[in-house]
Amino acid sequence: MRADEIRAALATPEGKAKYPFPSIVYCNIGNPQALEQKPLTFFRQVMSLIDAPFLLENEKVISQYPADAVARAKEYLRHIGDRTGAYTDSAGYAFARDVVARQINERDHEIKPLVDASSIFLTDGASSGVRLLLQVLVGDASDAVMVPIPQYPLYTAQLTLLGGTPAMYYLREKDNWALNVEELVLAYDECVAKNNATPRVLVVINPGNPTGGVLERDVMEAVAKFCCDRGIVLMADEVYQENVYAVGKRFLSFREVVLGLPAPYNTDTVLVSLHSTSKGIIGECGRRGGYFCLTNFPAP
């Protein structure tokens, strides 16, 4: 891309003379450690002991680690058989999915039915989860995915690879990039009429990327009903759920909203929610971790 061309030019005397700045700051993607955010030491300590469990046998080494990091590493190693180089279950370690399920239930105020590990799939980042899901849900150009504009370009790029059809819906800039269901209806009808494609998935990014908008419950309820009424899978990209700073705003998950709706919406709205270790307070983009959680998906 153009930024890479400029970066290469800045490495030459001619480029240094041409541009009025010495380096490039990449702001096209959330990549906090590239911008010198330091990783949390606890995570790195635990991971180092898991990857090199023989260190646990060296008292001099262990004396340099906090007791809680040592205890956590031993707990994880017990679950994974003291090794990290073997294949895992396709959906990820069962004990880790149990932990994720507990966190989701706590976050969503224990709303029923509780999620369990069977609905959780661990992925190497939320992006790979998106790719896997779209491979299942998109067959050809007759299948469309509704994508917000402005958007994170992962979705349209993946649709291009799969031969699917993007159906763009526009966030309202004058209303702080709000999502309006009227725009969804317009985009849906236009896609069917002009592209001869049926929307199968609606992508909602909440909190918004790149807009930063945080959805209110009434809007989320209307979105869920829109999807349910049309048989659309609601794909909730919620990777920035820990990054809400505006006074009076708080993150609310689509799972909690959907399950709190009256029948039939609480049981018939098909939802997949995505999260990532790349964002929030963790910021481990290069370590690759994430999950998606299925709600109301029909049994195979």
Automatic annotation (TrEMBL):
GO cellular component: cytoplasm
UniProt keywords, alphabetically: Acetylation, Aminotransferase, Cytoplasm, Phosphoprotein, Pyridoxal phosphate, Transferase
Pfam assignment, any one: Aminotran_1_2
Subcellular compartments: Cytoplasm
All residue ranges annotated as the Aminotransferase class I/classII large domain in the record: 68-293
Protein family: Belongs to the class-I pyridoxal-phosphate-dependent aminotransferase family. Alanine aminotransferase subfamily.
Name of the protein this chain belongs to: Alanine aminotransferase 1
Protein species of origin: Trypanosoma cruzi marinkellei
